[in-house]
Design brief:
single chain, about 300 residues, alpha/beta, five-stranded mixed sheet, 6 helices, 5 strands, about 65% helix, elongated
Length: about 300
């Protein structure tokens, strides 16, 4: 076997092994998407009703609370960025990071300082490489988040929104994550969690034909809002984590399918090259045999004379 043919065969073997790995990862990601979608759907009713309850309390009282009250001159904002712990998911994490960078520039243009909180090793690595300050980070659960993870993330954010800005607190809470639209479409979005925009919630309820419920507050509207604040932030973060997980699996499945298809095309191309090299070797061997036989015939004929 010629040297060129051996090179092609080794490359075919290596690409075939890679194709098996990418195909397995594609199938694993596809199986996990369904579970992630179910979790997203299951979390939506609670988050929707909680938002409606908060809106009803805020619109039914004159309570001043960080959950619903806009600062007169906001100077500081917290941004929670949700990325992935692992790669091989196409542009999933990079798109979320780009959305966070655009949000950061917009907030800076409004004269606000930005405190960054990050979920996922990819985001941590991005900010660490650029030596940017990160207030807190969380890793190790992005592909399968639990409600306890959302509670751990929400705790420092709630503490920051409840503090005075001069004491290290913030006036706004924003979250950047990848919204799951469909198996083929996932969009990196930024959303303001706090203060809650009551006008937007009311307009959305009106559009859907819903009527905000009426409540009586015991002992007071302020106490009710204090109790709802952590639940609201936790539910919003949990829903974002679930949507990001579903988006991550969908992006990884699409990336691995593309890698598998590319590996198949490369194997076909290398096989054609290997066949051409084999044919060239066979042709050369035949030519050498024919040439040798002809030379031997000529030598024999010369000796007979």
């Amino acid at each position: 076997m010629g040297a060129q043919l051996r090179v092609y065969k080794r490359r075919i073997q290596a690409v075939t092994a890679t194709k098996k790995i990418t195909k397995a990862m594609e199938m694993i990601a596809a199986s996990r998407i369904v579970k992630a979608q179910r979790k997203v759907a299951a979390s939506m009713p609670y988050a929707t009703e909680l938002t409606r309850a908060v809106t009803a309390v805020a619109t039914g009282s004159n309570a001043k609370h960080p959950l619903t009250t806009e600062a007169e001159a906001p100077t500081r904002a917290a941004v929670l960025l949700v990325t992935s712990d692992r790669g091989l998911a196409g542009g999933y994490s990079s798109n979320a990071i780009k959305a966070a960078e655009r949000l950061r520039e917009r907030l800076a243009g409004e004269g606000k300082e930005v405190d960054t909180y990050i979920v996922g090793r990819k985001g941590v690595a991005y900010y660490g490489f650029r030596e940017r300050k990160v207030e807190e980070s969380w890793t190790g659960f992005t592909d399968n988040p639990a409600y306890s993870d959302a509670k751990r993330i929400a705790a420092p954010l709630i503490e920051a929104i409840q503090q005075e800005t001069a004491e290290g607190g913030v006036d706004e809470l924003h979250i950047v994550f990848t919204e799951f639209v469909s198996m083929m479409t996932q969009n990196a979005v930024d959303d303001r969690m706090l203060p809650l925009s009551l006008d937007e919630v009311a307009q959305e309820s009106t559009r859907k034909g819903e009527i905000l419920p009426l409540f009586e507050f015991e002992p007071s509207a302020e106490d009710v809002l204090d109790a709802l604040l952590p639940r609201y932030v936790e539910s919003r973060i949990y829903n974002a984590l679930l949507q990001a997980a579903a988006s991550e699996h969908a992006a990884r499945r699409r990336a691995m399918k593309s890698a598998t298809d590319n590996a198949g095309d490369l194997i076909k191309s290398l096989s054609r090259l290997a066949n051409a090299a084999r044919q060239a070797e066979i042709t050369q061997e035949i030519s050498e045999i024919v040439g040798g036989a002809s030379a031997l015939a000529d030598a024999t004929a010369g000796s007979d004379k």
